[in-house]
Amino acid sequence: MEKEKIDQFMMANAKFFPPMMVGQIKDKLATLGEDKETMLMSTDWKNPTVGFLFAFFLGGFGADRFWLGDTGLAVVKLITCGAGGIWSLIDLFTVGKRTREYNYKKFMTYF
């Protein structure tokens, strides 16, 4: 991938990835072939802000966990009503990190 395209990708999508992985992402993008470049550019990344809103308004029902594909824990959270709200409160503070990690794992599937 060309440097301009890498910079463009990072400007548009860096907020969706863990800050400590940005350098590694740039290195991986430099080795990306043209066939996968188109797929990567059209990928919809999950927004950590949306995850926070799910956790804030529907956290007791496990919506944030369902949204990230963590179905097993989401069902347990739903059954226990977020363990009396404590689990929901913890998820409220960790959903941003979990969303960025989810996006990073999705990014790594292209390599």
From TrEMBL:
GO CC term (a single one): membrane
Q: Membrane-spanning regions, if any?
A: 49-68, 74-96
Asked if the record carries the keyword Transmembrane helix, the reply is yes
> What top-level branch of life does the organism fall under?
Bacteria
Q: Where in the cell is it found?
A: Membrane
Chief place of localization:
membrane
Protein keywords: Membrane, Transmembrane, Transmembrane helix
What is the membrane topology noted in the UniProt record heading this document?
A: Multi-pass membrane protein
Q: What is the lineage of its organism?
A: Bacteria, Pseudomonadati, Bacteroidota, Bacteroidia, Bacteroidales
Q: Where is the TM2 domain?
A: 46-93
Q: Does the keyword Transmembrane helix apply?
A: yes
Record's protein name: TM2 domain-containing protein
